[in-house]
Design goal:
254 residues, alpha/beta, 2 domains, 4-stranded mixed β-sheet, 55% helix, 15% strand, nucleic acid binding
């Protein structure tokens, strides 16, 4: 199964034919993509997607991520037929109490802090700087000066929908459904928590000189896909650590 990237500048229409998506383009022959072979869909630009096509994708558990006009992450759609697992139940308990959501927020803040401390030590950044945006500004300056790459932040913005799509697939496979993935009145949602955490891995890659070959969309897709395995492994590790955090909390209460 592979991700399907679709851009409005190249795609004039998407149709459902049997169990496949027919992608219509103006300057080349139509292409068919069997639903069974699609892991996730990332839409950018102006693309008309019918409810019939969207329903077919969601019924096959294919998340559809939408990017805005500047390539930024706007949102994600997913189906409802995943089974709930124990870790989701723990998180739902926090959502119901709301007053205890700080447990989840603090855990993710702690994981982000570990990533920041590693970057501060690795690149000798000031140890008294704790604000995330300031750290990113220092890293962006380093990327410009040492690697002569001047568009990293705009490139990263365009890769966040790709990250969101991959994380959605992974989290859904671990049993999380829309109730914990999407934003809620008392929480930014589990998906955004993971996006914020995994973004630091992309910053680390760039600061170490692992940068895209250019700023074009296809170059960014190739770059992201070349690191998608490492992102998946790190995400799986974080999910395992989150499970252990709830396990520890249970024994602390016992």
């Amino acid at each position: 199964m592979k991700p399907l990237y679709l851009h409005g500048a190249a795609v004039s229409g998407i149709r459902l034919e049997h169990d496949a998506l027919r992608v219509v383009t103006e300057h080349r022959a139509d292409t068919w993509f069997p639903l069974k072979r699609i892991s996730r869909i990332i839409l950018s630009g102006d693309i008309q997607l019918s409810s019939k096509v969207l329903a077919a994708c969601l019924s096959e558990n294919i998340p559809v991520v939408v990017a805005g006009q500047q390539g930024e992450f706007v949102g994600v759609c997913f189906g409802t037929n995943f089974k709930q697992q124990s870790l989701q139940s723990h998180i739902l308990e926090l959502y119901e109490s709301r007053a205890q959501l700080y447990i989840l927020d603090n855990w993710f803040l702690g994981q982000q802090r570990q990533q920041i401390l590693h970057l501060q030590k690795r690149f000798r950044l000031p140890q008294d700087v704790f604000e995330a945006n300031e750290i990113k500004a220092r890293l962006d300056e380093l990327i410009c000066l040492e690697h002569r790459f001047y568009d990293w932040q705009s490139c990263l913005q365009k890769m966040i929908p790709m990250l969101a799509a991959q994380l959605t697939v992974l989290l859904r496979h671990f049993g999380f459904d829309s109730e914990v993935l999407r934003p809620a009145p008392a929480s930014i949602g589990l998906l955004q928590h993971f996006i914020d955490l995994l973004e630091w891995k992309l910053w680390a890659l760039a600061a170490n000189g692992h940068l895209p070959s250019g700023t074009l969309r296809n170059q960014l897709i190739h770059y992201y896909q070349s690191h998608s395995h490492d992102i998946e492994q790190f995400t799986r590790l974080q999910i395992d650590k989150l499970w252990h955090r709830f396990y520890e909390a249970q024994h602390e209460q016992a």
